[in-house]
């Protein structure tokens, strides 16, 4: 199984508009962060895309990805779903809509916001067949589990994907570690985890919380994501434990 990190940045990306790099060195290419999204690929070449970030088109082009086999959404915040229209070209050579999965509330809000994607309009076909994650157990060669995570006043869905004897956990946009998360995520080969900044934040995990989750679930390796302009790549690499990788756009990692 393989992880491809399409985007590793927070909702405004790095740099922010105005060429604001904060504490990030603009001469370090791995500090240039688009909005978060990943692809998980199994040994058969089947791919699951998690979240359709605002920067999805550029991410897919940069990584030479022309198709995926299914899409999962963690939640419906703009930086995680507003690139959904860029999936249109993946429908062109399919006889049926691309499978999509999210929790009940996210499904409802995505259908309301992007009705043309899920219903088809004016002669255009339905692009994505959206289903509740609780109604599926095996998707594109992957088995998976999911759990709802506190994300400030709302929730985000965390996923555990398994294929080819390996397991990958994707936990982004959470503000608290719950017993349910620990139970679902226990013992993964790879954890990809929310890590907005060093200081605590009301809706996101900070560095200490990200590492705490990795320790509690006994992750073999951990990759940090969703980082803001205070998280300089090289500085952070010198701070984290040896089994923790600072994520970056384009990171391609065997699980």
From TrEMBL:
Residues 34-226 form the Metallo-beta-lactamase domain. Pfam families: Lactamase_B_2. InterPro entries: Metallo-B-lactamas, RibonucZ/Hydroxyglut_hydro. It comes from the Bacteria. This is MBL fold metallo-hydrolase. It comes from Qipengyuania citrea.
């Amino acid at each position: 199984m393989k992880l491809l990190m399409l985007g590793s940045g927070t909702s405004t990306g790095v740099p922010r508009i105005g060429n604001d790099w904060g504490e990030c060195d603009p001469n370090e290419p791995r500090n240039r962060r688009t909005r978060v999204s990943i692809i998980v690929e199994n040994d058969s070449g089947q791919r699951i895309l998690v979240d359709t970030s605002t920067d999805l088109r550029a991410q897919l082009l940069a990584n030479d990805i022309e198709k995926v086999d299914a899409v999962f959404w963690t939640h419906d915040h703009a930086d995680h779903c507003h690139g959904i229209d860029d999936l249109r070209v993946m429908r062109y050579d399919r006889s049926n809509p691309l499978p999509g999965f999210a929790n009940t509330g996210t499904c409802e809000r995505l259908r309301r916001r992007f009705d043309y994607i899920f219903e088809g309009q004016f002669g255009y076909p339905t692009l994505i067949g959206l289903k509740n994650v609780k109604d599926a157990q095996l998707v594109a060669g992957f088995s998976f589990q999911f759990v709802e995570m506190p994300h400030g006043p709302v929730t985000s869905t965390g996923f555990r994907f398994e294929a080819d004897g390996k397991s990958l956990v994707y936990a982004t946009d959470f503000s608290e570690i719950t017993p349910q998360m620990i139970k679902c995520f226990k013992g993964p080969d790879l954890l990809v985890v929310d890590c907005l900044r060093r200081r605590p934040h009301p809706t996101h995990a900070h560095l200490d919380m990200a590492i705490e989750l990795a320790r509690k679930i006994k992750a073999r390796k951990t990759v940090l994501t969703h980082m803001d302009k205070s998280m300089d790549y090289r500085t952070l690499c010198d701070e984290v434990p040896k089994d923790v990788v600072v994520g970056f756009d384009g990171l391609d990692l065997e699980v």
